[in-house]
Amino acid sequence: MPGNSFGQLFRVTTAGESHGPGNVCIIDGVPPGLELSEADLTPDLARRRPGQSKITTQRDEPDHPQILSGVFEGKTTGTSIAILIENQDQRSRDYGDIQHKYRPGHADYTFDAKYGRRDYRGGGRSSARETTVRVAAGAIAKKLLAQAHGIQIVGFVTQVGDITANIPNPEQITLAQVESNIVRCPDPVAATKMIELIEKMRSERDSIGGIAQIVTTNVPPGLGEPVFDKLKADLGKAMFSLPAVLGVEYGNGFGCATLRGTENNDLFATDSNGNVITTTNRHGGMLGGISSGQPITLRCAVKPTSSLPQDQQTVTTEGEPTTIATKGRHDPCLLPRFIPMAEAMMAIVLADHMLRQRAQRGTF
Question: How far apart are CA 35 and CA 10, in angstroms?
Fold first, then answer.
């Protein structure tokens, strides 16, 4: 079946393209009785929306969500929730030149290889515009998780290009710190340098990549499955499903390659309440693919924006050599708007495994 749905018990199905009438999602599995309104969805959508600052694309979309079903008298009914977000500032004329050309770094060629045709307006289905409704679904998942266990998800930018933030205690970063600047980096000194670099990239008609970190606290132990549906596996799939993600690691990640076992292991102990804990968290909150009760720490490497307003070598759909300069409005760095997308996918995965744990053991 086409891969437009994600999750088992908390299941999100999306449809829509960058320059179509809008994007829609259907969310199955939300328990009845959860207080929910469109106002609950708008904060994260505002963090994701284009045109929010001088270092993002200047496409102007209000991204107002419309809840079409599944909510009655301010509470969820337990039935499918449908959400629509309309596109209002498309400029499809900007993409006429790429109808018969393949943009480097984009899915133009692979879409033709798969389907034999493609919607060339802004990337169609492969555009990050599709993530609007994922962020809306993630906002519902966040509310469900917070109500059940006080789970909090905070994402932030740790690196842009060669500029790296100094964040000694990532598990203590707050949303207010993240939102204190337009690049969403809680290190104000590094943030200033990142913004300057991104502005430089825009002036040079280029782009830059970086790294985002997502930290989730108050996750109870026991979420996830021991083999194919490991929590880390589902989170990896979730993050890789987002546009522009080229790498995902958790805990020590690739840093474990140079460590000895005695350096990498987290030792067990008990806290003042008698709960089992680990004295360090190199495992990133997951052991054997199951949550340990420690904060889940995950990082994503995000590539530079592929759409560039300067000539690059390519070929036509007939294989003839040519050049292309992508018109349109694009982010010189994807990281600031990537943060709410990654938070949403983290929330969707955790909500799904929370419901599965309740179904298996009767606990939530």
Answer: 17
Q: Are 211 and 219 contacting, i.e. CB atoms less than 8 angstroms apart?
A: no
Q: Which pTM was predicted?
A: 0.95
List, for residues 112-171, the tens digit of each pLDDT value.
Answer: 999 998 888 777 788 888 999 999 999 999 999 999 999 999 999 999 999 999 999 999
Measured in degrees and rounded to the nearest 5, phi and psi for residue 225 equal -115, 155
What is the arrangement of strands in the sheet containing 5-6, beginning at the earlier edge strand? 5-6, 11-16, 22-28, 81-86, 65-69
| Residue 48 and residue 136 in contact, taking contact as beta carbons nearer than 8 Å | no
Distances from the Cα of 265 to the Cα of 169, 274, 286, angstroms? 19, 21, 12
Dig out the tokens for 305 from the structure.
């924006």
CA distance 204 to 122: 22
* pLDDT attached to residue 40: 98
Which pairing describes strands 81-86 and 65-69: parallel, antiparallel, or unpaired? antiparallel
Which domains, from first to last, does the chain contain? Answer: 5-361 (3.60.150.10)
- Give the pLDDT confidence score for residue 3 in this predicted structure: 85
Strand partners, 249: 299
Q: What's the CA gap between 299 and 199, in Å, rounded?
A: 24
Q: Residue 295: what residue type? A: P
Mean pLDDT across the chain: 93
| Model confidence pLDDT, tens digit, residues 155-196 | 999 999 999 999 999 999 999 999 999 999 999 999 999 999
* 2 pLDDT higher than 70: no
Question: Using an 8 Å Cβ cutoff, are 99 and 123 in contact?
Answer: no
What is the DSSP code string of 17-72? -TTSSEEEEEEE-PPTT-B--GGGTHHHHHHH-TTSSTTS--------EEEEESEE
Sign, CA dihedral 58-244-281-263, equals: negative
∠127-23-14 over CA atoms, to 5°? Answer: 85
User: How many other C-beta atoms are found inside a 10 Å radius of the C-beta of residue 234?
Assistant: 24
Confidence of residue 66 (pLDDT cuts 50, 70, 90): very high
